[in-house]
Amino acid sequence: MGVSNLLKCVSLKSHKGSVVAVDAMCWIHRGMISSAVANVTGEACDKYIKFIISMLAVLLSYDITPIMVFDGYEMPSKERENQSRSDRRNKARAEALEMIKKNKGAINTEIMRKCMQAISITPEVIARVMEICREMNVRVLVAPYEADAQVAYLCRAGIAHAAISEDSDLLAYGCPRVWYKLERDGRADEISLNFNSHPDVKCSKGLLKGISHRMFVAMCVLSGSDYDDGCHINGMGIKLAHRFILQYETVPAIMAELEENLSWAKKLPTHVTLKQLEDHYLNVSKIFLHNVVYDIRTNSLTHINPIPHGEQNLDIIVDLCFRIRQRADFNVVSAGHVNPRNGEPLIYEITPNDKMLTEGMKFADLEGVVSAGTREESEPINDLLLQTTLVEQPKEAVENYGGELLQSIASELDFQNIIGSDTDIVNPPSAVLSTTSSTECDYSVVARTITEDSTTSISTCDEFYLPTKSQKGRVRDLINSSERVTIVRPKRACVLRRAML
C-alpha cells in the first residue's frame, strides 16, 4: 500500500508479565520445516516439538503467558480452497517420495524444497503439541472455526495483550497488535492497527487514519482472499483496492464505478452478475467482521463484533451459526479433547523424553488472570447463534436481521448426536469426558460492548511463577541448543541501524 513505518521492531523485554495469544498452527508449521523430510517419509522426529518448546521457553524467560490457539471446524466457504491445497500437498508428497527413491535416500536442496511443499499437520501432531502445552501449564484453546479469528478476538476483548502469528488474516480480523517473525532473541516485527471498537468508526490517527475496520476488510477482500471462489477481479491488488476504498469507501460504490469504467468492466468475472459479485464480497466481509469465536471467560460462543440490527448479507454467517449449533458440546471441543474435523478423541500420552524436555518449565495459571477481567454490561443483542429455526426463516428475516432475543440453543445440543466432517461419534470414552471442565458450557451469546477502556483490564499476569536461577539457565540452554528453523528473512530495520552504529 506504500505505507511507511508499518513494521516496528519490538523486544519481548518491553512486554514482561503480559498474556499473548499464539496461532499454534503457525508455530507447528514453522517447526515442521526442519523435519519436512521425516514428515513425508513417516519417520519419527522430535524437531518440531523441540522448536515449539523452545519458543514457549522464550516466552517463559520474559514472564509472558501464552494461550495456544488451534484451528477448529473447517470453514464451509473455504472447502474448495482447502481441497486445492490438499491436492497440491499430496502431489508434492508423491513427487518427493519418488525423488528420494531415485536419489537412493540422499537429500538435496530440490528434495528438501519439495518436502516443504508437502508438509501436512496430522491429528497426532496436534494431539502431541496440545499435551506438551498442558504439561507446561499452557492454556490450550480450539477455535470454533479459524484460529486467526479466535486469536484476534482474544486481543480485541482485552484477554491478550498481543498476538503471535505469521498469518496476515489477523489484520483483516481487526487484531490490534500482532507480532510477526518472533525469534529466539525475543525480537519480533510488530504491526499495530488502532481500529475503533465499532467497525464503522474511522481511525482518527495513526497509519490507518480515515479508514474504518469495515473499510479495511473491504479493501482486503477486494484484493483477493481464500474465499474468492473464482470471483476475483483481474488486476485488483492491494494498492488499487486501497485507492478505491479511500475514494469510494463502500463495496457497492466501488462496484458501480467499475461497471461504468470500460477498462475495468472487461476485467470483471464473467460467470457472475455484478450484483452477485457485490453480494459475494459483502458476504465474505462479514466473515472478518462477525465470525464465530469462543469467550473463555464465560464458556460461551459469540461473534468478534456484535451483529447490529438491520445488518444484511449474512448468508455465510447464518450458515456458520447453523453448523456450530449441530456440533458436539463445544466446551469439550474447545479444550482440545475431541478432533473437530472427525469427532474422534485427541489422545496422546506424555513420554519420559517429553517430560525431560519440559522439566522445570511451568507457566502461571491463566484462569485467575482471565476471571479477574471486568466486562461492561449492555442491553441484550439479538444473535444468530441463539436462533432455533434458522433453516425455516424466510430470506427477508435474515436480510433484515433484528428483533427479539430468541431462546438459547443449549438444550438442543447433544453430545451423542454430532454432525461434523461426515463422521459421527457415539458415547465418547469416559476418559475424554472426565478431562473436561466441571463448569457447564453456556451456549448463550454474551451481550457485550467493547470499549477502549475494556481492552486493558486483564492483559497482564501479576502472579506469574518466576523461574529460579537454575530454571532460567535451563531455558536459555534449550533456546540455544534447539535446532533453528532456516527461513530466509530480510534484515530488520532495527538490526541494520545497530550494525551501522
Summed up, what is this model?
By secondary structure, this protein is α/β, with parallel strands linked by helices. The protein has helices at residues 24-33, 36-41, 47-61, 79-102, 109-117, 123-135, 147-156, 169-172, 213-223, 238-248, 251-260, 262-265, 274-290, 315-325, 330-334, 352-358, 366-371, 395-399, 430-434, 469-481, 493-500; strands spanning 8-11, 19-23, 65-70, 139-142, 162-164, 177-180, 187-192, 292-295, 300-303. Strand 8 and strand 9 form a beta hairpin.
Would you spell out the secondary-structure blueprint of this structure?
Layout: E1 8-11, E2 19-23, H1 24-33, H2 36-41, H3 47-61, E3 65-70, H4 79-102, H5 109-117, H6 123-135, E4 139-142, H7 147-156, E5 162-164, H8 169-172, E6 177-180, E7 187-192, H9 213-223, H10 238-248, H11 251-260, H12 262-265, H13 274-290, E8 292-295, E9 300-303, H14 315-325, H15 330-334, H16 352-358, H17 366-371, H18 395-399, H19 430-434, H20 469-481, H21 493-500
Helix pairs in contact: 1-3, 3-20, 4-5, 9-10, 9-13, 11-13
